[in-house]
Design a protein that fits this description.
heterodimer; A: 116 residues; mainly beta; 7-stranded mixed β-sheet; globular; B: 112 residues; 6-stranded mixed β-sheet; 5-stranded antiparallel β-sheet; 11 strands
Chain lengths: 116, 112
């Protein structure tokens, strides 16, 4: 149980285009979902926290107009990277938290974004 | 905010030996401390966690200890196997706020 999926697993796009990444909790309802970014050989950096039906809370230094997050249901959150640039190339990982589970987060497999 | 430091950054052991990874945290309000294993190109997988009302927790070859007074916690892997090779991350969470703060990671290499 507690499986989180992400789609796509890899995406290559041209500079200036937008890319949408989906995060789904497959067998549980996630009241809270988190989006992380991970550069090669580095740790996970929290980008934003999203609660179903409300606006996401972004970490300091993360541009909310560039990284659009939507959490429309208890099983789906999306991250849209708008007007992507090569410096946005990274590994994006989502996680989901079950309300009744004390702080426990389940991570998706990640999405490798490459911007040319 | 919370700051989590993790050591060592790399660790190489012989198969069958034990491996220990240590983390310290800064915020005394933190009360949840998970450990994640991340294999190349994959998302982190929870391997064990501990809460602040417990000093030690064990699951087969993996154990975690917590010292709240000193604000540090450690991961112990016994009888290491080549498949234990991966990057391990510790994390801490502040009560009432479910976002995790991650350590910098430890690359564990188990030599057969």
């Amino acid at each position: 149980g507690a499986v989180v999926s992400q789609h796509p697993s890899r995406v290559i796009c041209k500079s200036g285009t937008s890319v949408k990444i989906e995060c789904r909790s497959l067998d549980f309802q996630a009241t809270t979902m988190f989006w992380y970014r991970q550069f090669p050989k580095q740790s996970l950096m929290l980008m934003a926290t999203s609660n179903e039906g409300s606006k996401a809370t972004y970490e300091q230094g993360v541009e909310k107009d560039k990284f659009l997050i939507n959490h429309a249901s208890l099983t789906l959150s999306t991250l849209t990277v708008t007007s992507a640039h090569p410096e946005d190339s990274s590994f994006y990982i989502c996680s989901a938290s079950i309300a009744r589970s004390y702080n426990e987060q389940f991570f998706g497999p990640g999405t490798r974004l490459t911007v040319l | 905010g919370e700051n989590v430091e993790q050591h060592p950054s790399t660790l190489s052991v012989q198969e069958g030996d034990s491996a220990v990874i240590k983390c310290t945290y800064s915020d005394s309000a933190s009360n949840y401390f998970p450990w994640y294993k991340q294999e190349l190109g994959k998302g982190p997988q929870l391997i064990i966690d501990i809460r602040s009302n417990v000093g030690e927790k064990k699951d087969q070859r993996i154990a975690v200890t917590l010292n709240k007074t000193a604000k540090h916690f450690s991961l112990h892997i016994t009888e290491t196997q080549p498949e234990d090779s991966a990057v391990y991350f510790c994390a801490a969470s502040i009560a009432g706020r479910r976002a995790l703060t991650f350590g910098s990671g430890t690359r564990l290499q188990v030599q057969p």
